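Figure S7 source data.
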Amino acid sequence: MKGAWVILWFLWPILRLYRTLRGSRREKTDLKITEVGSTSVEVLTDPIHKDDGLPILLIEGLFGFGHESYWRGLPQAIETSGRRRKLIFAKPGAVSSVHDRACEIFYQIKGGRTDYGKEHSDEFGHQRYGKTHPGLYPEWDKDHPIHVLGHSLGGCTGAMLQHMLATNQFEGHVTHADMIRSFSPICSPMRGTTIIHLLGLRSGGQAGFALLSLSGIISRVLHFYQFIGLNFIWDFQMDHWPLFSLKRLVREGAEGIRMAVLWLITVMVRSPFAEGKDNAFYDLGLEGACQSASKIKMNPNTFYRSYAASMTRPAPFFGYHIPSNILHWPALLLLSTYIGSRTRSSLKKVKESIGTTVEQWFESDGVANTVSQYHPHSCREDYCQHVRGFPSRMEKRPALERGKWQVVELRGVTHFCLLPSFLVSSTQRQFYKDYLEFLEEAEAC
Ligand SMILES: [Zn+2]
Ligand SMILES: [Zn+2]
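Tokens for the predicted zinc ion complex:
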């Protein structure tokens, strides 16, 4: 009997997710579907009126599955707020690096053939060009800015996108950091997460993941997935990597099949994707994330608000962190305990370069270290302001300033409490309300 309860405890969130996804397919919304490349992107297709708010770009996290239910409740919250807003649902590569994801998002919005940049593609050994997109908001420029909201890796991607806009990295386009009016990462490990070492990330300057690590295995499964042509089920958008498809090679006859088998054996031993530094897993590690963060500069005209979650508290006597509530999802209880007690040398080495203590890295939301969710650089009086709880619930709201991070610290909140919002809980409704009020304030300034 006890065993049945344990199984139910583990399976319950999965069953709820399945039911929600099934239900949402039937749900009628006012979103229309536009085909972009081979991925479907939902966007409000009405023209923008004079009194409408600025559009919001929504960026999902790692393994984002491209389903509108990730942001469920947001269109309704916007309707309730009384201000129309265009929603731009980005669909970047589910396991691609933040650089590649930022490129894909830029061309999904502006339209045109995705250009990953000559220097970058030469350095990492993938094709320079990717999918062609019709453009979800081609008028996007300095005079038509947008708001950016990203969850987890989606927030890290948004930070890279603004850096690339600020440094004019999209050939043939004139860009500016002002193209982003506000940027809000949610539970985003902008300086990396120590959980990534569980996936087998090598530390100490070595790139990539060990062959027999979890990430090494995932990468090889992805190669095989692409190889046998299962993209129609779920497109990971890895087309720019030199990955062969069995279908293509079979068409080329016996020689093609021989090449296919040889290629498959080669990537199973040495994966071009997993062995390098151009993938999401590397960018989520402390070394990769801190390298990206070191490039990112604050734009004096953008409003920044991050939502940093924590589900742990210090354990008595030991100084490590343990879950603050036993009723969270069991997997997160285990992961937060792992993060809460990690003291490996790689962490000690990195923390010196980013001005934090090892103890600050114990607190987490079950996936990302809380200190890493604040902002890309260390705390400074002129750089950031921290508040506890949603500002919209405070009697006296903290003043919002351009070019300064406002960090909303949320206690008792896990990595998945705010998003994906399959169930639209009261916390998620409160979060949407808070966020939309932040946008109003940012547009009024
Ligand atoms: Zn790349
Ligand atoms: Zn700070």
